[in-house]
Amino acid sequence: MKRTKDIAYIPIRDPIAFRKSILLSNVGVIRILEKYEMFKQIRNQKRGLVNEIREKMLSLHDDMLKIKSFLPDVNEKALDREYEEVKEKMQDVRSPSKRSPRKSQDSRNLQSELRMLQEKLSNLDI
Length: 126
Hints:
Largest sheet: none
Number of domains: 2
Number of helices: 3
Strand content: under 5%
Order of helices and strands: HHH
Low-confidence stretches: none
Radius of gyration: 43 Å
Mean pLDDT: 85
């Protein structure tokens, strides 16, 4: 079933312009293929970096488990209670009602020392 007789020829009005348009479209296709190749390379690099990060995270996790195995067991509830107790004590120490008398005494002492130093300085200037 050869169809050698069915070949049809189509006349091209401007063969040079037609050839030029085909070449320009080929250039566009080649540029698209180059960009696609670059995309594939970048995607492969990304996969490699993601795999590297995964490996490092797994090794870090293993190291953390090793460190935890060397540390003593700690009762977290007891630590929380101790923390709350210390926090309450710190708030009691920092409360303004308890600090105000001592603060006034400290300020009086500092003022008296300041006066004494000023007198000594004035005696030196004579």
